[in-house]
Write a structure and sequence with these properties.
This protein has helices spanning 20-30, 56-65, 68-73, 116-129, 177-182, 248-259, 307-326, 335-362, 416-420, 463-467, 493-503; strands spanning 10-16, 36-40, 53-54, 76-77, 81-84, 90-93, 112-113, 135-136, 138-146, 149-156, 159-170, 186-201, 203-204, 211-216, 219-225, 232-238, 265-266, 273-282, 286-287, 290-292, 298-299, 386-387, 407-409, 412-414, 425-429, 443-448, 456-459, 475-478, 484-488. The strands form five sheets. Strands 1, 2, 8, 9, 10, 11, 19 and 20 form an eight-stranded mixed β-sheet that branches. Strands 6-5-14-15-16-12-18-21 form an eight-stranded mixed β-sheet, sandwiched between helices. It has an eight-stranded mixed β-sheet with strand order 22-29-28-25-26-27-23-24. The relative contact order is 0.14. The chain has eleven helices and 29 strands. By secondary structure, the chain is an alpha/beta fold. α1 (20-30) runs parallel beside α4 (116-129), α1 runs parallel beside α7 and α7 packs antiparallel against α8 (335-362).
Length: 509
Amino acid sequence: MTRVPQTTDACAVLVVGAGPTGLTLAVELARRGITCRLLEAAPGPQPGSRGKGVQPRTLEVLDDLGIVDQVLANGELAMPIRSTALDGRVILGGAEPESLKNRPDVPYTTSLVTPQWRVEEALRLRLDQLGVAVEFGARLVGFSESDQGVSAVIKTGNRTETLEARWLVGCDGGHSTVREAVGIVFEGETLEDVRMIVADVNVGGLGRDAWRMWRHEDGFLSLCPLPSTQVFQYQASIAPGQNPGLDLANLQAVLERRTGQADLQLGEPTWPSLWRANVRLAQQYRQGQVFLAGDAAHVHSPAGGQGMNTGIQDAHNLGWKLAAVVHGAPESLLDSYEAERRSIAAHVLGLSNARLSQTMQEGMATRRDASTLQLDLNYRGSALAFDDRDVDADLRAGDRAPDATHLETPDGEYRLFDLTRGGRFTLLAFGDMPPVGNRGLDLQTVRVAEAPGPGRVMDTRGHLRVAYGAQDHTLALIRPDGYLAVISDAGGAEMVESVLAQVTPSDAQ
């Protein structure tokens, strides 16, 4: 069915760029009933595998959005890795980290390999179900700002329109026109001598049972089978003086020299590109009514599979906050977006840079390191984080809210994430539930009790209590994006009130 894009001349949020970040933001807004437009200058979906690794924390986000099953069906978790060292030894890797095995608090314990376009496909389908279409071929040609919002000029084919929006969010990549238009500095550097060929190719004579890597004196080479397709992602480092050509003959020559195998035959590359090390971070994520997210705010190396994941999580953080302000929450809530997400990006850039250096010097890592899975990223110290725990406590306000299995409810047994799915606030009480009143919020209360009932769950195996380090009076307030706003062992209802005051519509306070 062909959908007709929205043609109204006003909306709450104008999103520019329909990659994973922009799509996630549009889904977040649309499912909360917020009017938005999603522009994409390209004539259609972008080809190529590009970012092929979906980290566990991002899988949790996709679960919350209701699309994780589709994404999992088109990917492979814990893909086996076979890496050939300089001396010819074959090193096996890719297994689930030992530290995450049999963890009821972590539903996804390893990264998923799937082409980026599959993730985008699932997000577009979800957005379509919510009644919003990506406007392909629609280009932002200019905009002006006021205290009330932005006035944007959009060109689609021969048609030009002016759109009034309360906010504009640039999700339009490393060469963001939105970022350049508002003059936000993109700090960092481009290293012209650090390059990599990345391409999607058919490979004859090679099994699809593992991601294969080779280390050679010329550099590394990698062939990763892309699940749900017939192609592999080809990656080869290109040192200064080496041929960076993207033609089939050069790719084949690099392959044969670095693998030492003449029986592998490449097909014509369908998506060849030459990547250069361009590692940058926006000096700020907001100027007035304009926000940046995803690659428009930070660009990473492919090493460690962090870029797409960080962008999706940017959108998951910003989306519920924009929606809350549209519904009447104080606009100061939006200040927490940059405060929380820019520091995360700086940390992840450091991790990506370290992985890139390792890859160029030693080849790609075969061991899945928990540090790249993004489960330990946190917002400790945020204006939306309150607790009464010791500084060295394992779980603090601002941390990712743990999952738990075997929770008995009147409707059957569930995981905690089954109960929190859908982007709402959840108040967990391990003792008495404090009164929270009707605040005009999507807030559910769940009391951990000795028997299930309305608003009560039974922690049949103690997984929930262990995951939260709970005592008899512990309260935990989980944010819509799955992070802890409050964890209070004293049952500090005043902490809950402090957070809710920042997100409650003014007419409900």
